Amino acid sequence: MSDTTFPPCPECGSEYTYEMDPLLVCPECGHEWDPNAAAAADTDTGPVIKDSVGNILADGDTVTVIKTLKVKGANQPIKAGTTVRNIRLVDASDGHDIDARVEGFGQLKLKSSIVKKI
Hints:
By secondary structure, this protein is mainly beta.
């Protein structure tokens, strides 16, 4: 019998977890997880921002606008399919968590829910 103890299951809290290389497994709920990935996720400092289809966004990514957007003070809307390069993620104010320069419009804040990562 091994004297190694494993952390409890993060899903159900069961103490009967066991190792199945390279994962830990819970026999009660069937949850499998990588303990190293969980430790790395705990050290992450900021919130994870995802695009409209669930891809994780990062500073410097290139995205495409997925629907036509009306812009106050502009003569024309930003059309669906417009490519926006070198985005910068910012703290969400009013849900606008992307700061970007859109060609023909200048500096704008966008919502991550209306873009798709390329």
